[in-house]
């Protein structure tokens, strides 16, 4: 058997769901159109109800302007009706793969993509594991791709990890956080490593505070069950914002391509954040709010789910001690903006440098500088030095983060995926916030749709 004698099959649970239709299928189509999918590649979409592939495609965000390409893409698909509660369905699937192996001496790479609500994770993981769909050997290499949120709190995350450990190795589990795969986020490590100007100043002697924001103008867009059960803290802070925090502040390993070192660096950083323990600190350093009309949208007049969350924390190591870090996220705001703002210690209150990683929109980096205003007198003005991807790399292909996570999982490269240690530590840090908010529903504030972050927080 040589390297080309292999087949990759992506098996998608939840093919008719919002995520598959809006993100996963368009990303697969883009990879297909750019000839980036592995050789000998197939997709099996699993759906509870009987459905035709055309129906799935029509409802998805796959571009339909190239009919030939669109029709060819369909040919690598197979849709199966599948009851994820029924063991027999898994036995049949296993048999289907065995038949492939019996007919041709190849290596089968199978990726199970769990694009489903988290409450069904346990059932599917257990049934995959107990029906031999967890193998990792020379003939059959099975991996799992799991969407966030990974767990609901610390104890449910621990239980999920124990369940996974029962059937799968850590190396087989790919926990997706699409923020890590954004071009602008991957660039942060490169920026930090290869610009000596900033390297020496990347610590509490030169940096006075950091702000990380993922602000959205969209509301929950009908994802009622998901959001009511999740809220802004679990939906974004536990995952995206913590990952942005780690890439911004972790100690860089010597080799940025060594996945173990990267995972260790991300985890060590999180391990240095102490959870807030007393109520006074929790009251001062955490904030949550809900947009008006949310309760009508979710048909729950008593809902205390937050659609806006902001927390302030500190990293307790010698590099970052004393630097306040604020993480903020929210829906139905006046703008869509994800950014990381690094404030350098001021020479005096008017003269400081601010470095902003603009993740979206208008991806790029800007640096705020103090300069002499032209003229005969000595006036100082603030101006901005601006790098934008659009201007500097206008002709370059900028893949969607889902293209990157899919491609990396096909290659077995887990650099951009969260490990169980990172997951546990993020919940460990947030658990007291979850408890405090639960015990103090009266602290929930309200805002009107379209309000700005600043006006909500003040
Ligand atoms: C998802 C959240 O992970 O990220 C959504 O579940 C959110 O609620 C989305 O809208 C935002 O992603 P992006 O890439 O548009 O900022």
Main pleated-sheet profile: 9 strands, mixed
Question: According to CATH, what is the class of the largest domain?
Answer: Alpha Beta
- The proportion of residues forming helix, as a percent range, comes to 25-40%
Total number of helices: 16
Chain-averaged pLDDT: 94
CATH superfamily of the largest domain: Dihydrodipicolinate Reductase, domain 2
Give me the CATH fold name of the largest domain. Answer: Dihydrodipicolinate Reductase, domain 2
Secondary-structure class: alpha/beta
Query: Distance N terminus to C terminus?
Result: 65 Å
Number of domains: 2
Q: What small-molecule ligands were found?
A: 6-O-phosphono-beta-D-glucopyranose
Total number of strands: 15
Unreliable runs: none
Tell me about this structure.
There is one protein chain. By secondary structure, the chain is of the alpha/beta class. The protein folds into 2 domains: 3-147, 3-Layer(aba) Sandwich (Rossmann fold), CATH 3.40.50.720; 180-457, Dihydrodipicolinate Reductase, domain 2 (2-Layer Sandwich), CATH 3.30.360.10. 39% of the residues lie in helices and 22% in strands. It is built from 16 helices and 15 strands. It has a 9-stranded mixed sheet. Strands 3-2-1-4-5-6 form a 6-stranded parallel sheet, with no helix packed on it. The chain is globular and about 85 Å long. It binds 6-O-phosphono-beta-D-glucopyranose.
């Amino acid at each position: 058997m040589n390297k080309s004698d292999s087949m990759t099959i992506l098996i998608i649970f939840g093919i008719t769901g919002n995520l598959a239709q809006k993100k996963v299928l368009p990303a697969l189509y883009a990879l297909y159109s750019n000839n980036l999918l592995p050789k000998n590649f197939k997709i099996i979409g699993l759906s509870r109800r009987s459905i035709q592939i055309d129906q799935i495609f029509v409802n998805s965000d796959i571009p339909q302007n190239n009919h030939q390409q669109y029709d060819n893409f369909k040919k690598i698909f197979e849709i199966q009706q599948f009851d994820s509660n029924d063991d027999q369905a898994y036995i049949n699937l296993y048999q289907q793969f065995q038949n492939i192996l019996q007919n041709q001496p190849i290596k089968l790479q199978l990726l199970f993509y769990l694009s489903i609500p988290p409450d069904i994770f346990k059932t599917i993981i257990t049934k995959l594991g107990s029906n031999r769909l967890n193998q990792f050997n020379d003939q059959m290499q099975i991996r799992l791709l799991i969407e966030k949120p990974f767990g609901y709190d610390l104890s449910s995350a621990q239980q999920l990890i124990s369940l996974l450990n029962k059937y799968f190795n850590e190396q087989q589990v790919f926990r997706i956080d699409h923020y890590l795969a954004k071009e602008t986020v991957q660039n942060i490590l490169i920026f930090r490593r290869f610009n000596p100007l900033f390297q020496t100043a990347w610590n509490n002697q030169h940096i006075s505070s950091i702000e990380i924001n993922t602000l959205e103008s969209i509301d929950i867009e009908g994802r009622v069950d998901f959001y009511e059960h999740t809220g802004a803290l679990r939906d974004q802070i536990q995952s995206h914002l913590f990952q942005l925090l780690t890439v911004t502040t972790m100690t860089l390993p010597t080799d940025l391509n060594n996945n173990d070192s990267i995972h260790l660096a991300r985890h060590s950083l999180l391990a240095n954040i102490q959870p807030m323990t007393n109520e006074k600190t929790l009251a001062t350093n955490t904030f949550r709010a809900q947009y008006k009309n949310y309760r009508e949208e979710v048909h729950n007049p008593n809902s205390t789910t937050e659609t806006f969350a902001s927390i302030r924390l500190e990293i307790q190591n010698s590099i970052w001690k004393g630097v306040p870090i604020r993480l903020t996220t929210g829906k139905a705001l006046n703008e869509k903006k994800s950014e990381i703002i690094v404030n350098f210690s001021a020479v005096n209150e008017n003269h400081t440098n601010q470095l902003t990683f603009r993740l979206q929109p208008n991806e790029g980096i800007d640096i705020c500088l103090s300069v002499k205003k032209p003229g005969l007198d000595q006036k100082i003005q603030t101006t901005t030095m601006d790098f934008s991807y659009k201007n500097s790399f206008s002709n370059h292909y900028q893949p969607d983060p889902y293209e990157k996570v899919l491609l990396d999982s096909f290659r077995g490269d887990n650099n951009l995926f969260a490990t169980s240690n990172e997951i546990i530590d993020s919940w460990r840090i947030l658990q007291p916030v979850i408890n405090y908010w639960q015990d103090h529903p009266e602290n929930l504030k309200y805002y009107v749709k379209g309000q700005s972050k600043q006006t909500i927080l003040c």
